[in-house]
Amino acid sequence: MLGANDGIVSTASLIIGVAAAAAKPSDILIAGTAGLVAGAMSMAAGEYVSVSSQSDTEKAELARERAELVGDVDAEIDELAAIYVARGVDRTTADAVARQLMSKDALAAHAHDELGISDMTVARPIQAALTSAATFSAGAVLPLALVVFAPAGLLIVIEAIASLLFLALLGAVGARTGGAPVWVATIRVTFWGALAMALTAGIGRLVGTAV
Predict the structure, then answer these.
(1) Residue 30 CB partners (closer than 8 Å, separation 6+)
(2) Residue range 57-70: average pLDDT?
(3) Does the pLDDT value for residue 145 go beyond 60?
(4) For residue 70, with 0-12 CB atoms within 10 Å meaning exposed, 13-18 middle and 19 or more buried, which class applies?
């Protein structure tokens, strides 16, 4: 949802700004397409760098934990058992559970319960980058398609209204999925989208007049 929202706001704002500068439809389409590609690549690169850093941290923590397991197994059993005791398990049961889990896969047990790392949560940089690029592009395609189909004289109005409707719909779907208040999320995302479009329209108008 966040990536799609970014795609809609960024691309629609760019298109409206360029259109407000009295650019030709072909120039607007080129600018919008360039914005889609640049935005998708920026999202992918940023996500890849961020998640790669997280992955490096996870690998370092696992390496340190692996060394500790080799050095003092009993201390690691006590450490794992203490985690279960803190969660409300009695000491005897916690100790038994820690020993059983470590007898199967000691590193996995500590990774999951001590470090919070599991197969479900492990950092995947490439997957994160591709997902960010795909969601941004999916959102950006919507306002970009309007450049092709909307009449040139009404492009700014249609672009703004349709993009805000797209944002409102995504905000409502995201809020309902997450169990948050629908109207609050819808108004919030629509307000910031409208503000971004208004600012770029104003800048485009000023630049177009000056040029």
Answers:
(1) none
(2) 85
(3) yes
(4) exposed
Evaluate whether 188 touches 4 at the Cβ level (below 8 Å).
no
The C-alpha angle 64, 66, 67, rounded to 5 degrees, equals: 65
Residues 6+ apart with CB under 8 A from 17: 200, 201, 203, 204
User: What pLDDT, on a 0 to 100 scale, did the predictor assign at position 15?
Assistant: 92
Q: Residue 193 is encoded by which pair of tokens? A: 């989208």
Chain-wide mean pLDDT for the chain? 86
The count of C-alpha atoms lying within 13 angstroms of the C-alpha of 203, restricted to the half-sphere facing its C-beta, is: 12
Q: Are 69 and 133 in contact (CB under 8 A)?
A: no
Q: Is 121 helix (H, G, I), strand (E, B) or coil?
A: coil
148: amino acid identity, one letter: V
Q: Are 65 and 108 in contact (CB under 8 A)?
A: no
Give the global pTM. Answer: 0.75
